[in-house]
């Protein structure tokens, strides 16, 4: 089932999310719904707070980026063929490499994209959908997506990295999103 994505201004997007245990009710269905929601809205990652659930869970699939690359884009990122996975109770262990800029967007903040600097590499400890613990290092576009989604479970948004003047200039657009004055081709839930 495709879930509505909460819009900028919804309080859950600013919460540090709670860890969960294997007996979390309806977890398998929630994960399946999150995959369907992410693909249905053309996303590459989706965090539970974006579907109004304040838990430490996100899904991401960078494989689709590599599958849809043009020939001249091959070798642009070092992490081919990408990674698809579920991250539960994730915690960043280390950030390494130089920071690099990439034009990011967010399903909860539609029609706004900005260049954001993030580290080239992240080492993260997480549990998969079977609650098996992993510690893995990711780089390239996979690391970027993971860091973007990880920020969601920490109550941060990509616009928090933008310089204050630029944020001030986008205030009207952000206000319009909060008020529901935006058209998107996926279901959204706006703050009341």
Radius of gyration equals 16 Å
Number of strands: 7
Overall tally of domains = 1
Beta strand %: 25-35%
Give a structural overview.
This protein has 192 residues and is an alpha+beta fold. The chain has one domain: Peptide Deformylase. It is built from five helices and seven strands; from the N terminus they run E-H-E-E-H-E-E-E-H-H-H-E. The protein has helices at 27-40, 63-67, 140-153, 164-169, 171-178; strands spanning 5-6, 45-47, 57-61, 84-106, 109-127, 133-139, 188-189. The strands form two sheets. The chain has a five-stranded antiparallel β-sheet, sandwiched between helices. The chain is globular.
Quick structural gist:
The chain has 5 helices and 7 strands; from the N terminus they run βαββαβββαααβ. The chain has 192 residues and is an alpha+beta fold.
């Amino acid at each position: 089932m495709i879930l509505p994505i909460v819009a900028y201004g919804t309080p859950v997007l600013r919460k540090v999310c709670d860890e969960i245990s294997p007996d979390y009710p309806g977890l398998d269905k929630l994960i399946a719904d999150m995959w369907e929601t992410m693909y249905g809205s053309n996303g590459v990652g989706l965090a539970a707070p974006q579907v109004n659930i304040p838990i430490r869970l996100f899904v991401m699939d960078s494989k689709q980026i590599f599958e849809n690359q043009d020939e001249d884009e091959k070798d642009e990122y070092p992490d081919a063929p990408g990674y698809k996975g579920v991250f539960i109770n994730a915690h960043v262990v280390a950030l390494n490499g130089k920071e690099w800029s990439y034009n990011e967007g967010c399903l909860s903040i539609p029609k706004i994209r900005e260049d954001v600097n993030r580290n080239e590499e992240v080492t993260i400890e997480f549990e998969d959908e079977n609650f098996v613990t992993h510690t893995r290092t990711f780089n390239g576009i996979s690391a970027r997506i993971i860091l973007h989604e990880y920020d969601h479970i920490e109550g941060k948004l990509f616009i928090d990295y933008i310089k204050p003047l630029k944020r001030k200039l986008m205030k009207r657009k952000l206000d319009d999103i909060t008020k529901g004055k935006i058209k998107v081709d996926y279901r959204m839930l706006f703050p009341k």
